[in-house]
């Protein structure tokens, strides 16, 4: 929905995020700023996230998978495909949050 504030709240205070085309994000404030600016230019119409491997390690979850999304940028409809890895932790209320994420875009193939 392009709600940067809601997306920001899905990250830990010390989140470490690596996304294509932007500097590494350190902390929730950096996540808020980057996605707030990004959502001004990009409007998503579809996002598919497909986990391939999920491993529990104590109170954390490590996950890798693929994604594809469809969006409008500068009036043009586009798609991107790629892979991600992430570490997720539960907060005191039991909600899962992104602590670490690395996203790698793959322009040579579509969703599998």
Summarize the structure.
This protein is α+β, with helices and mostly antiparallel strands. It has helices at 4-8, 28-41; strands at 11-18, 25-26, 42-57, 60-73, 76-90, 96-105. A hairpin with a 5-residue loop joins strand 5 (76-90) and strand 6.
What can you tell me about this protein's structure?
The protein is an alpha+beta fold. Helix content is 17%, strand content 58%. A six-stranded mixed β-sheet has the order 2-1-6-5-4-3, covered by helices on one side. The longest helix has 14 residues, at 28-41. It starts with a helix and ends in a 7-residue tail after the last strand.
Helical percentage = 10-25%
SSE sequence, one letter per element: HEEHEEEE
Broad structural category: alpha+beta
Largest sheet: number of strands, sense, barrel closure = 6 strands, mixed
Mean pLDDT value: 87
> What is the radius of gyration?
14 Å
Number of helical segments with 4 or more residues: 2
- Strand % is over 45%
* DSSP strand count: 6
Q: How far do the termini sit from each other?
A: 25 Å
Give the overall form.
globular
Low-confidence stretches: none
Strand ordering within the main sheet: 2-1-6-5-4-3
